[in-house]
Amino acid sequence: MSSVVTPTPAPRRRRRTKLQRRQTRLAWLLLVPALLVVAFVAIYPLGKTVYQSFTNQQFLAGITPTKWVGLDNYTQIWHDPAWKHAVILTLKFTVITVSFEFVLGLIIALVVNSSFKGRGVMRAVMLVPWAIPTVVAAEMWKWMLDDTFGVVNDLGVRTHVLSHSQAWISNPSTSLGAVCAVDIWKTTPFVALLLLAGLQVIPTDLYEAADVDGASKLQQFWRITLPLLKPAILVTLIFRTLDALRVFDVFAVFFGNRLDTQSMAIYIQSATVGDGNVGLGAAASVFMFLIIAFFVVIYVTFMRVNEE
Amino acid sequence: MSSAAESTRQVSRPVSRVVRMRKSPVGRFLWKVPFWTLIALIFIYALFPFYWALRSAFTPDQALFNTPIQYFPHNPTLQNFRDVLGSSLFRHALLNSTIVAGSVTLISLVIGSIAAYALGRFRFRGKSSVLYLMLSMTIFPQIAILGALYTMFTGFHVVGPFHFPQLYDTLWALIFSYLIFTLPFTVWVLTGFMRALPADLEEAAYVDGATPLQVFYKVLLPLIAPGLVTTGLLAFIAAWNEFLFAVSFIQSPGKYTVPVAIFSFTGSSGNAFQTPWGQLMAATVVVTVPLIAATLLLQKRILAGLTAGAVKG
């Protein structure tokens, strides 16, 4: 039926009025400061990093003249076992922390979302770890994990979970778990808050209808909560993954430059600032950028597929 | 036929024992036990490390390095606080961090709100590209530009006719570089606030002959004041907590920011006896309490800002 009716021609919008043109000019004028800052602080340095990755740029450029070295930095990093180790360690860290934070965060969000007395207090409490600077949180945990006077060992031995005190941070087999513990503690509440925001958008009458139909709480969770929470989950996972991949602070506090426990960011920072080898650090940055981009692409395609 | 069969099935559906138990008064009480246990666990998990820092800050040194561990200080002392606040390193760090975080916040809010005005209240081509640019900047890995900024700050850097000033080892280096994560975030969130204002808000002002700039700071800015507070606080916290740039661009201890100063307590290694843990924990308490207080005070607004920055992205 509708195909028979010829559509009335839409009013021509192409010609822009004087007012519109003036508006456009003003809008761009207002954007100039912000765009200038972004260009200077982000885009120009990013281009410079890419350029530097092909040179032997040193921090003290006056001593070693900077020259083009082609792909030398890239091949050097590709064959550097320390870099490979850093990549693997960072990936392990990312997988462990993001999955723990997601599962724990979801549980906490579900608990806090149900109405009970003291919900406001609970939500405030959850913001505490988030507000503590990462370096400070890492120092707190470093002290709690101390091998002689740490409370974790004391509690563990008292409750007979541990047979004897552990050197959590210096022992290579527990060091990864130790850094993960700090990150999980600090970030889980944040994840929970993001998921909570997603939960609160789900209309309650869906659950009421499901109750009437006799769906169990578990069924409601799988069939209503999880599907409707998917956008919030994906955004949270993206943010967390990107954050975890560039982890620096906790590793710096716990291990300094210890070679067997470098994250990608630690490797880059110690090459750039510690050794003054800016070119090499830049090449590693480009590698890291590609790894991060890879994760973004995976998440975005996953989101697209789900939308269709 | 089918409806009758269904209704009988509905009625005769056996109510599971769990459900029956949950409905009785005793059952309702018992059902709540695991729930409240879970709440208590979350509560302890979130707060215990902070309690432990407090307890260690108030415990005298000789009791701190003694086993068995005291879970509550028997002879609480303020000595650790006196020591840490008496050290010029820490006092300078507090001042430096305030200067840096304050300036970054102020600059971001000024530039950001102007940009948000354009992005939130005007229709023009290229708007969504600018918004996407800002959004992609918020997930930008800062480490990727560390080396470039590092060489730019040495003072030997020339961009065309422009000689980049030597910022290395000055607070300016931090103020400049922190804009990379505070400004795009500020623009993004404030644009949301600007957009949420009613569409015909400016019209009356325009009719009265106000200029767009007047509309901006006399009509719109007061209305998004809550947004400015939230965004400002989040930007301030982000700048206050930043560590990577601060530890890379600052060399003299007198210019350390708080995270670097706290980091310098333990250094890269060292055993428990060399690290003044009591003082260190006192420092963490001093640094954290204002942040926690501000966060709790503005809790609702922070939640709104965080979710605007992340979930809607």
Task: Report what the structure shows.
The complex is a heterodimer of chains A (308) and B (313). With 308 residues, chain A is mainly α. In chain A, 72% of the residues lie in helices and 0% in strands. Chain A contains 12 helices and no strands. Chain A has helices at residues 18-52, 72-78, 81-113, 119-131, 134-144, 151-158, 172-199, 204-212, 217-245, 249-255, 264-274, 278-307. The longest helix of chain A has 35 residues, at 18-52. Chain B is an all-alpha fold and 313 residues long. Chain B has helices at residues 2-12, 17-23, 25-58, 61-64, 79-86, 88-121, 127-138, 146-152, 171-196, 201-207, 212-223, 225-241, 244-249, 258-266, 277-297, 299-310, and strands at 158-159, 162-163. In chain B, strands 1-2 form a two-stranded antiparallel sheet. In chain B, helix 2 crosses helix 3, helix 5 (79-86) crosses helix 15 (277-297) and helix 7 (127-138) packs across helix 9.
